[in-house]
Amino acid sequence: MYEVINQISRWAIPVMLLVIPLIAFIKKVPVFETFVEGAEAGFSTAIKTIPFLTAMLVAVSIFRASGAMELLASWLGPVLSVIGIPADILPHAVMRPLSGGAALGIATEIIKTHGPDSFIGRLVSTMQGSSDTTFYVLTLYFGSVGIRKYRYAVASGLAADFTTLIASILICNVMF
């Protein structure tokens, strides 16, 4: 079974790169022109997102460099330990909604410290894979397309982040 999945994953993209243009050619879609139009639209979208991306990266850098994240972790750590949440994961839980790259860096440091097969290493890996970067998505994607009223998106995103945090903790406690 593993070999079948391996072969499917190996050939999926080359087959799509052959089949999609072939179908477009059969349907008389101007493939090259359509590709160029899409690339042009993608380029202009990328240019529009640069200011939002820069603002988000600066804000995350200030948050980490100012020591605010460590201060928050030191305040909440004792309370979380009482209810069974390791204080070591708090910086990752705080950073994940802000920046995927920063959260990955924190996860890497946690795994280096505790080991990949430790409970905390598995927990932070589960958290990294099951949550999203709520504020990054709101800042970059919503901002680049001009959405200004995203109050409910913030609440929904943060509720999803909290839910995945709790689910990760519960699942890891059961599984490991």
Automatic annotation (TrEMBL):
InterPro entries: Gate_dom, SpmB. The chain crosses the membrane at residues 12-29, 41-63, 75-94, 150-172. Residues 47-147 form the Nucleoside transporter/FeoB GTPase Gate domain. One of its GO terms (cellular component) is plasma membrane. Keywords: Membrane, Transmembrane, Transmembrane helix. It holds the Pfam family Gate. Signal peptide: none annotated. PANTHER family: INNER MEMBRANE PROTEIN YJIG. This is Spore maturation protein. It comes from Desulforamulus profundi.
